[in-house]
Amino acid sequence: MNARVALVGAGPGDPGLLTARALDLISRADAIYYDRLIPSSALDGARSDAELIYVGKRPGAPSMPQEEINAALVARAKRGGLIVRLKGGDPFVFGRGGEEALELRAAGIDFEVVPAVTAGIAATAYAGIPVTHRDRASAVAFVTGHEDPSKPESAIDWTALAAFPGTLVFYMGVKQLGRIAEQLIGAGRPADQPAAVVERGTHPDQRTITATLATIAEAAIAAGIKPPSITVVGEVVGLRDDLAWLEKRPLHGRSVAVTRARAQASGLAHKLRELGATVIETPTIRVTALPGDAPDLTSYDLVCLTSPNGVSCLFERLNAAGLDARALATATVAAIGPGTARALSEHGITADLIPATFVAEGLIEALRDTPVKRALIATALDARDVLPEALRQRGADVDVLALYETVAEPLDDQTLAAARAADYITFTSSSTVTFFLAAAGEAGLSHDTRVVSIGPVTTATLREHSIAPAVEAQQYDIDGLIAAIVADATG
Ligand code: SAH
After folding, report:
1. Which residue range(s) make up the domain with 158?
2. Are 102 and 170 in a shared domain?
3. CB-based burial of residue 249 (10 Å sphere; 0-12 exposed, 13-18 middle, 19+ buried)?
4. Quick one: 234 and 145 in the same domain?
5. Which of 39, 318, 338, 358 is most deeply buried (CB count within 10 A of its CB)?
6. For 141, phi and psi rounded to 5 degrees?
7. Which residues contact 410 (CB under 8 A, 6 or more apart)?
8. Average per-residue pLDDT in the chain?
9. How many angstroms separate the first and last alpha carbons of the chain?
């Protein structure tokens, strides 16, 4: 069988820096051999039947020896298919990709190489440090701090490196930093040249410290810098004072737990990440559609939709019955808020009515002047009955159609602990509160975590559990929730 191996760089950590080529190969691979420093979501797009083989370091244990990785790749390639060898950063920059390619060539196996953003360029860019600059550095050198232990004393020519006319970027942990700085200064590099260490470059919790070549090792130890980190030495480091941008994001350095269902969380998580937050996805609930027939919508003069889930479940039922948006042609269509209205517009329906406040009470108020004879409320099982009651009191004939129910999503202890340690925890519905607290058990919520509620109904549920939210959205939707967190974090 024909085999092909792709040596693919996954970039420095931010999933947004994966190349289109890398994502395409990941989505088609039969087998993926991956390292530790790849972005956490890099494998999300892999085929569900792909073999995923971890060959990186394990805590407290050495990495798989390179010879074993080489042998495993060659053996797997002989079985055929598309094999992706996925590495952190660029595969040919200190990634031992060259060695793996040589082995493949020797075994007569076809391969391709997919370059990627290397940590030395990415972590520095995210730290506001251009590695070259017209007036400050016309060259840049990438240097490895971990040398091959089998090499004699030192393969690095310190005199040449000290005299290098440009920026030096060292790939390594901070352990060797003191020794490197000493060697460089000893060989004539100015002791007062600016230097920086960038920890976890391009991750939301990236940290940068700056000092001089003489003091950088001490500063890194004092700051407790951990791997992965890179060190930059050169006049360009001074530009960070003017060019730092990551730290200016309003939620930089803050962690936010998102408890809503996995299927709905991505929009909120994405917006929070764009604002600089570390997002801890803690899906406590899952929405499952309830079985049932399509309702006859032509018999109602008002149809109310109380969530985007309701919209998608309603259209699933309509579509299953061979119906489409025309089923809503004769009714007034009310959406509880802009998210629900957006979901409707994806199905070709422009909501006739969206209240000013996005809760049932707001909808009742908005419907005050609309005559209603027969209404359908398409909603969740066990939804609040405020809306049907109010309409019935006005003499309307009201049907409540439960389209879906909310069930618990199992949470592992690690995720739960991460959520409890977050700076903020967001609750976007009463059910996220109830199910999160049920999962957390006695441990409950940590006092140091600021509880964020999307609006008064969710707040009331929190209060039933004796929790007073630190932050409540003024506009009861996702954008309002985000605005409230930003105001709290920056206020
Ligand atoms: N092929 C990779 C480098 C592999 S060597 C690349 O092109 O980036 C591993 C070293 O890279 C780590 O010890 C660390 O010094 C550096 N590194 C990798 N990812 C990093 C990150 N996100 N931030 C800072 N340094 C990183």
Report:
1. 121-246
2. no
3. middle
4. yes
5. 358
6. -120, 130
7. 439
8. 93
9. 62
Kindly report, residue by residue over 240-252, the tens digit of the pLDDT.
999 999 999 999 9
Domain's final residue, options 376, 407, 438: 407
Q: Name the residue with the closest Cα to ligand 1, atom 13.
A: 172
pLDDT score of 151: 57
Q: Residue 147: its pLDDT value, please?
A: 54
Quote the CA–CA distance of 490 and 321 in Å, as a whole number.
51
pTM: 0.83
Given a contact cutoff of 8 angstroms between Cβ atoms, the answer to whether 285 and 321 are in contact is: no
Annotated catalytic residue 172: yes
Atom of ligand 1 nearest to the CA of 172: 15
Q: Determine the 3-state secondary structure of 302 from DSSP.
A: strand
Verify that 200 and 174 share a domain, yes or no: yes
CATH number at 234 reads 3.30.950.10
Residue 149: per-residue pLDDT: 44
Q: Are residues 270 and 189 in the same domain?
A: no
Last residue of a domain, one of 352, 373, 407: 407
Segment 15-43, tens digit of pLDDT:
999 999 999 999 999 999 999 989 989 99
Q: How far apart are CA 264 and CA 18, in angstroms?
A: 23
Catalytic, 64? Answer: no
Closest ligand 1 atom number to CA of residue 200: 23
- Is 95 found in the same domain as 12? yes
Token pair recorded at residue 155: 């393969």
Q: Are 279 and 239 found together in one domain?
A: no
Q: Are 376 and 401 a contacting pair, CB within 8 Å?
A: yes
- Cβ(171) – ligand 1 distance below 6 Å: yes
Tally of domains in the chain: 4
pLDDT digits (tens, 9 = 90+) for 284-318: 999 999 999 999 999 999 999 999 999 999 999 99
User: Could you report the per-residue pLDDT of 41-90, keeping only the tens digit for each?
Assistant: 999 999 999 999 999 877 677 778 889 999 999 999 999 999 999 999 99
Q: What is the CATH number of the domain that holds 305?
A: 3.40.50.10090
Cβ of 119 below 6 Å from ligand 1? yes
pLDDT at position 14 over 90 = yes
Q: Say if residues 321 and 297 touch (Cβ distance below 8 Å).
A: no
